[in-house]
Amino acid sequence: MSDGQFHGIYPMLYAFFDRHGELDRGAMRTQVQGALAQGVHGIAVGGLATETNKLSTEERATLMAWAVEDVAGQVPLSVTIAESNVKGQTAMAQLAADLGASWVVLQPPPVRGASEAALIDFYGMVADGSPLPVGIQNAPEYIGIGVSNAGFAELHRRHPNISILKAEGPATYIAALSEDTKGAFTLFNGRNGMELVDSLRAGCHGMIPGVDACDRQVAIYEAMARGDEAEADRAFAEILPLLSFLMASIDHLLCYGKRLTARRLGLVEVHDRAPAQQPTAFGLEIVNRWSKDLGAF
């Protein structure tokens, strides 16, 4: 059975840096507090939107510790683990448990030619050493490597504590994944919530979007939960152009989604860690147009 205690909107934290290129403690705390104030059902950290590929292992651990401190048990905390080997991922999963995280999500190792059998073995070895429920991020579009639906069914059969999937894809993929794995997993979708309502209809238990529009996404999720699909569809249509623009690519999301989030949090300036896509005047104009009704967090 899936781990049904985890559900709802879990915004993935952006990594905010100061003008010296170091992680900005104050901005990260402001971000968590801003998200919690919107009624989110959980917080996520360490994923692609956290620019984990630009962070050292020490910085990843620091962000994890800060998030645990700032969430303070108010909602579950999901930690994505991106270390490149079994030993590193196992150590980070143990650290997440020691700090007080609720569940972990494993990214695949950066070996695009790895076979599915090798990936299943990799995830299984990490899961066997994890004290926490384990999720897998399946994002071949963004990461370049993934597991099939049948592969996930086999993975859960061998390692039942792998009970959560962050399955990045269209709602049709989510529906097939849910059917093929026979309800074994708690399913989350990502992609900044671009297919929120249809993902929920397809069997998702929640979403892991960015922080930028998490207040609206919480309201949409709650409308679906109480059976008011008409209201959910109406509210979703209002933010879909914005979500679609932001999610043109991961780099695009980091460029414009982070700046929108900063604006809503009252953060004056965004400092990028190079290399990073830079905004254009026209791009900012588009963001401002589609987010004109989104006020301060």
Level-2 CATH architecture = Alpha-Beta Barrel
Number of domains: 1
Q: Please, what is the average pLDDT?
A: 97
Q: How much strand?
A: 5-15%
Brief overview:
The protein is an alpha/beta fold and 297 residues long.
Secondary structure topology:
Blueprint lengths: L7 E2 L15 H12 L6 E3 L11 H15 L5 E5 L4 H14 L3 E4 L9 H13 L5 E5 L1 H4 L5 H10 L3 E6 L3 H10 L5 E4 L6 H7 L3 E2 L6 H12 L3 H18 L3 H16 L15 H10 L7
Parallel strand pairs: 1-8, 2-3, 3-4, 4-5, 5-6, 6-7, 7-8
Helix pairs in contact: 1-2, 2-3, 3-4, 4-6, 7-8, 9-10
Characterization of this structure:
The protein is α/β, with parallel strands linked by helices and 297 residues long. It has one domain: Aldolase class I (TIM Barrel, Alpha-Beta Barrel). The protein contains twelve helices and eight strands. The protein has helices at 25-36, 57-71, 86-99, 116-128, 140-143, 149-158, 171-180, 196-202, 214-225, 229-246, 250-265, 281-290; strands at 8-9, 43-45, 77-81, 103-106, 134-138, 162-167, 186-189, 206-207. The mean pLDDT is 97.
Features:
single chain; 297 residues; alpha/beta; TIM Barrel; eight-stranded parallel beta sheet; 12 helices; 10% strand; globular
